Give the backbone structure.
Amino acid sequence: MTPRTRYLLSFFIFSFLSVQALFYAPSNAHADELSDAINTLALGDFDEREAAIAALAETGDTRIIPALEALAKGVLFQQKLGGKVVIAERVGANYALTDPISGEQLGEMPRGAVEKIRVNNRLRRAVREALGGLQLRAENPTDRKAAADDLFTAKDPASIPLLDRALETEDNPDVKAAMAQARAAAVLSSDLDDKAKLDAIILMKTRGNSDARSILLGFANTAEGELKVAADAAVKGIDSTLAKWATAQNVWYGLSLGSVLLLAAIGLAITFGVMGVINMAHGEMVMLGAYTTFVVQDYIRTSVPGLFEASLFISIPLAFLVAGAVGVVIERGIIRYLYGRPLETLLATWGISLALQQTVRSIFGPTNQEVGTPEFMSGAFELGQLTITYNRLYILVFSLIVLAALMLLMKKTAYGLQMRAVTQNRGMAGAMGIRTDWVDALTFGLGSGIAGIAGVALSQIDNVSPNLGQSYIIDSFMVVVFGGVGNLWGTLVGAMTLGIANKFLEPFAGAVLAKILVLVFIILFIQKRPRGMFALKGRAVES
């Protein structure tokens, strides 16, 4: 290597190290300063430690959160040699040490090498306040709102200065409102003047949920004069708001139940309406759809786990084909010999349902099978004070899509035209060249296939077991009879009406008595309107 080359190489290395020092030295220096500040938590008496906690909180550095949380939990220790503060967890006879800033594992030390940093209730309160202030400064608005909600629940007057400072810099409207409400809750527990407390009562009323009501009710029990009158009025206002939201929540629960009933009944509306067959095995078609979903997911879990999120989309056409094929076999093998004999059809399909249940029980066992929920259907979200779960919302949307697709099939296709022709006048349809026997088979298969699709949806909210279909067969018949036999619009209105009625009756009468009352109502209703709400002229009605 020539002298010139050595000189250039030395210059390059010197420049690179200088740049590294320029960028990383301040960061390392800052980390050392933070580490020194955390080490002060082990020094002095409780008063000095409380001052150290306050000083750490003033830095606004969220990296101190693990150290403060460890202090509150009693797992913050000081190494006797060197005085470094560490997080220590008991491992046998030793302690496993963790750096409180970086989270780096520092190995193990014997118990005699570290000393626990003592903490009392006053220090724990100081830690809670410090953590609350730090979380109120988090970058993510969701984290700041969660911190404000925690302070709302704590309603600690000591958090008022923290919230005041956070409110000065907060620019997110939702987070700012949550912080203001948390401050109001703290004010009601403080010794501030009446004017501040009246303003806090107004803010608490705007929150309008059960937590705000509980805080106001507790305050009203101890308040006097104008403050008590204002608090009582706010509680009454919140009660009115909660009653309205409770009604809306019951409507949502009713629509959710109605969507389930719609999915279970829509296939029955076709077979019962077009063919006049009282199919007691319809619930087992739902069960077959649910078990198809289980088989698909079981295969995906073991063979192609990356497709799990798409498992329901794969299950829908397969469930339709499996249940539809079983339906066609049942119609061709048994049902077609029993037309015009409803009692014998009922007994035959009941026997088929028992046979299908036992077959599934023999193959899969009598216990419930696990069907997973894809991530996009998990969880819930808040709409005002309504809690809406994603799986119920998707089932509602899915049931309406199935209904719309079925109506398009009935109104816009040649097969739908033939089905309606057979419904209105079987003899004339046969005279016009329509193969009525195959229309019957395909119609029964279509109704069974839609029941299989319903099973895919119901697998997300109910137990997948051989008895799954029995939970829905009676309700399905009630929906079809109440809405109007064979009328899809009637099935929709009937399902939603009965779902909402059930959910409004349950709080007063209980789940079982609510169903009995709904059944009594339907019996009385069909005495007045034997063809249901939306009567459909057809073979099943005329015969």
Remarks:
- The CA atoms of residues 6 and 111 lie 53 Å apart.
- The two ends are 108 Å apart (CA to CA).
